[in-house]
UniProtKB/TrEMBL annotation:
InterPro entries registered for this protein in UniProt: Papain-like_cys_pep_sf, Pept_cys_AS, Pept_his_AS, Peptidase_C1A, Peptidase_C1A_C, Peptidase_C1A_papain-like
The organism of origin for this protein: Perkinsus olseni
UniProt keyword list: Disulfide bond, Zymogen
PROSITE patterns xrefs: THIOL_PROTEASE_CYS, THIOL_PROTEASE_HIS
Superkingdom of origin: Eukaryota
Domain annotation Peptidase C1A papain C-terminal: ranges: 43-267
Entry's Gene Ontology BP terms: proteolysis
Family affiliation: Belongs to the peptidase C1 family.
Protein name: Peptidase C1A papain C-terminal domain-containing protein
GO MF annotation terms: cysteine-type peptidase activity
Length: 274
């Protein structure tokens, strides 16, 4: 498979998403209150949300360009587990099938911000109630509107927080609180072939962003090299059983995540739910 064919199958975003959803304004009273809450404690030296039980098993897109839906549901799974102590895989397929009126395009791509907006307005059911089939279909409203199946009901997701591009400190503080979703540049061919270690690519064009992932933690290796840990959605065959470590820069443009500019990361604010 050529790089172009691969990218057409699995990457799904190539620019910053439109501001169609309710994002918390960092300068508003709510935004300042949320930011102050994040900075109550200094972030620890390392964080691993997998070990903490807040990350569901690795998924595989299987030719459906729905990384935006996977990263969104996985971030939501994480904050729900932190709040309720229950890790429940949520329905990626619901986002794929049902969020087109919010600006997404099923398996042809979409945006995390639109998926969060959908969850805020419509809620979301479990993966077991609405399983993933790697193809876009008709929205099964008989399932999605069943309050007995909804893990999050409409209004339970009450907002999200965009972390400023290149703000390493704020990102550390964010990941210290919960897993967060991000968009990176996954076009370099060596990223597709990554099998382990801390990834850094000289082939990166930091102006392009193409792929949504979940940041599950951070740390440093035995040599003192700092990294972010991400969960990908290309199955367990990619990376280290579906996970990767990307170089953690100290700030500035071009090398954040070792792949490209970070363009969007979202914090969720969720009312305690089921």
């Amino acid at each position: 498979m050529t790089d172009e064919e691969f990218n057409n199958l699995v990457v799904c975003n190539d620019h910053i998403s439109p501001k169609v959803a309710r994002i918390i304004d960092p300068l508003s009273e709510e935004g300042i209150r949320h930011k102050n809450k994040l900075r109550v404690l200094a972030p620890p030296k390392s964080v691993d949300w997998r070990s903490a039980g807040a990350v569901a098993p690795v998924r595989k897109q299987n030719g459906c360009g729905c990384c935006y839906a996977m990263a969104t549901t996985e971030a939501t799974e994480g904050i729900l587990q932190i709040k309720t102590k229950k890790l429940i895989p949520l329905s990626v397929q619901q986002i794929v099938d049902c969020s087109s009126t919010f600006g997404n395009e099923g398996c042809k791509g979409g945006f995390q911000v639109n998926a969060y907006h959908y969850i805020e307005e419509r809620g979301i059911v479990s993966e077991s109630s609405y399983p993933y089939v790697a193809a876009a279909g008709v929205c099964k409203t008989s399932i999605t509107r069943d309050v007995h199946k909804q893990c999050l009901r409409p209004g339970d997701l009450v907002g999200w927080w965009p972390i400023k591009e290149g703000d390493i400190q704020e990102l550390l503080e964010g990941v210290a609180q919960q897993p967060v979703s991000a968009i990176i540049n996954a076009y370099p061919s060596d990223f597709k072939l990554y099998k382990g270690g801390i990834y850094k690519s000289d082939a990166c064009d930091s102006s392009k962003t193409s792929h949504s992932v979940l940041i599950t933690g951070y740390g440093e290796d035995e040599h003192g090299t700092k990294y972010w840990e991400l969960k990908n959605s290309w199955g367990t065959e990619w990376g280290m059983a579906g996970y990767g470590r990307l170089i953690r820069a100290e700030g500035g443009d071009g090398e954040l995540f070792g792949v490209g500019k970070l363009t969007e990361i979202f914090h969720l604010k969720v009312n305690a739910a089921s």
